[in-house]
Design brief:
CATH topology: TIM Barrel
Strand content: 15-25%
Largest sheet: 10 strands, mixed
Order of helices and strands: EHEHEEHHEEHEEHEE
Helix content: 10-25%
Number of strands: 10
Strand order of the largest sheet: 7-6-5-4-3-2-1-8-9-10
CATH class: Alpha Beta
Distance between the termini: 34 Å
């Protein structure tokens, strides 16, 4: 299944997208679903659930959390039971990254380092991700980021033996949707399915063309690969020992 793993709505500051419009555009773009990850809020959950029921398109709900060391896409098996981020992480911001990751893990969730080398945000994570425990994946493809940010993220994932995922980061224009996405090996119907596959690493980042419908171009890049006949793994998998040092 092909899911855009990083999409914002009007509940994100600066966002302008309605969930219903996003899901209709996702269907036209050939996506199987969308994961909504508004910045520091889960307030859009009721509207997203309603839009999914109306359109019949898979809509999953997570949250992008801004910390003192970068942004992280956080997904939970049952987001309805997750407290609002200020209740979960405290009222003082920016939230410490290690405390965020610990809280996400305690709730059965997973965290993905989002555009870690993006210098356009305050306090990007950069090579700090090499020192963190508990990351499920690295966002190796972000549809709105240019230059070396994506290349460095893919390199980091390779070094850490973590899967790459992809998302458009769509914020204020439907045309941004689906420029990057994540291919899930097994069917995804709920957030619990998404969490399980991210934890297992059965995901691949995908760069998409922009032609809507069946002609949409899909190009798998990075992510975990199945073992070959020699027992090894292709680039981006988890076949070897996890890297511990900084990017060279």
């Amino acid at each position: 299944m092909l899911i855009d793993l990083h999409v914002h709505t009007h509940h994100t500051r600066g966002g302008a997208l309605a969930p219903r419009d996003v899901l209709q555009a996702a269907r036209a773009a050939g996506l199987d679903g969308v994961a909504f990850t508004d910045l520091n809020t889960l307030d859009g959950l009721p509207e997203i659930r309603a839009a999914a029921a109306e359109t019949g398109v898979l809509a999953l709900v997570g949250v992008e959390v801004a910390t003192d060391k970068g942004h992280y896409l956080c997904f939970f098996p049952d987001p309805e039971k997750v407290p609002a981020p200020p209740q979960l992480f405290g009222s003082a911001t920016p939230w410490p990254v290690r405390e965020v990751l610990e809280q996400v893990k305690a709730l059965g969730g997973v965290a993905v380092a989002a555009h870690p080398y993006d210098k356009t945000i305050d306090r990007p994570s950069g090579d700090v991700i090499f020192t963190l425990d508990g990351l499920a994946a690295i966002e190796g493809l972000h549809g709105r980021k240019k230059g070396s940010a994506n290349d460095l993220a893919v390199e980091a994932a390779d070094h850490m033996n973590l899967p790459c995922v992809g998302g458009s980061g769509a914020l204020d224009a439907l045309g941004q949707l689906g420029t990057a996405a994540t291919l899930f090996r097994d069917p995804v119907k709920t957030e619990a399915d998404l969490v399980a596959q991210l934890r297992a690493g059965t995901v691949f980042c995908a760069a998409l063309g922009v032609t809507p419908g069946p002609a949409t171009r899909r190009d798998e890049r990075g992510g975990r690969r199945e073992r070959d006949e020699r027992g090894g793994r292709d680039r981006g998998g988890r076949g070897g020992e996890r890297g511990r040092g900084p990017r060279r």
